[in-house]
Task: structure prediction
Amino acid sequence: MLDRKKLVSDSETYLKGLARRGDYAAEVAKPLFDIESRWKELKSEVDGLRHRQKQMGPQMGRLAKDGEEFAKLRKEMGEVSGRVKAAEEQIRSLEEQRRDVLLRIPNLPHESVPDGLSEEDNKEVDRWGEPRHPVFKMQAHWELGESLGIIDFESAARMSGSRFAVLKGAGARLERALIQFMLDLHTQEHGYVEVWPPYLVRRHAMEGTGQLPNLEEDAYRTAGDDPYFLIPTAEVPLVNLHREEILDKDQLPIKYVAYTPCFRAEAGSHGKDVRGLMRQHQFSKVELVKIVEPEGSYDELESLRRNAEEVLRRLEIPYRVMLLSAGDMGFSATKTYDLEAWVPAQDRYREISSCSNCGDFQARRAQIRYRQAKGDNRFCHTLNGSGLAVGRTMIGLLENFQQADGSVILPDAIRPYMGGLSKLG
RNA sequence: GGAGAGAUGGCCGAGUUGGUCGAAGGCGCCUGACUCGAAAUCAGGUGUACCGCUUGCGGUACCGGGGGUUCGAAUCCCUCUCUCUCCGCCA
Result:
């Protein structure tokens, strides 16, 4: 959520910034200005009337209840009360409308973010490792996984439909090994606190991080009037850990890491990545979240990104770093780096991690503040990044380390987590 | 699932015959006095959000959330959520 007061007082700058995401973004914000001015007018009227009510209260208490003066005052104050109620109803309605608009306005892109509306406009900022080009017929990971007997898409489809996978034997162990490896790295070497959060959350938690109200069709939820939402990423529970809190300055920065399964309906991606582990309704992810002071939050983004990159380096998977263009970023982000791992069978890089600074956008939605000085409470900045998506990491391992005979050599870093196993198949 | 109790400011805790209660008192914290300094003591201050003029001041809202009764509600009524205790069940 953007700062309503600034949005109104400096609307030109804000609308211009929003338009960098596409014309729609500025359009969404437009109704706000009229709502805000009507709201202010009513608000000051009601404040005045209530002031009068408050003044008269004690006086009426002192008067004789059967006196003439009391009857007169009661009549007058009854009228005031009626007007207050009517105006307050209008105020409530305006505030609801205002909130609806504000919740649907995306975050403002940071100045360092390149212009552009699509993937094509993203800028490569770094690259690591040598992409492996095949001297033999390279197999896609789903072929490898099935021939090695470690991934079973068919059984998964029979019980759950498309976009599910069953991991078996060394495959299941590898999933667990990768999670363990990532958690150990981030907790022991990067200073994150490990968290085991709920996988089901209430609507307001999803609104807090910006998944709702806009992306409702992509979220799974339970039945009933007061549904739970299945988290699409651990970012949701991790950021909401401090909702409605005023933190002490010396508590910051807060750094959390959590492994969770993630659930996504993948509405609107029909036909994309229909095979393999690339795009699943349920997948594992180790997520990094930081809650920090506004000063230096972009430096924190750089280090967060490095923390995620380190996983790929240890696993010896070639990758590149993309700085996303304004129009390609997610709803809540001011600036996003995608890490893209090399996928030999597709002969291209594919997203394996997305690291964003959300500025105070989520903090304002979730009411996460910190005490800067006495009487000066400010919203924190929140950051998040995958460290990493486990399924996609498995793709990276299987495909990049496959051998001509269909076996897969495991990189050194993961072997201790596989009980010393050095090779699949 | 059944029965009961509760939810007040950073914390503890008053307030429930409706009126001067944003709310006693204590603790914590900040400032000043005393002191060489500290402790103790004394005095003052100490929530969040919004509106208006604006170095400061004035106003409004908020006593778990929402709704209602009333000229007026922390105080009465309804409802929801959460917490605790006991019983049952379950992992």
Q: What stands out?
A: The CA atoms of residues 150 and 172 of chain A lie 7 Å apart.
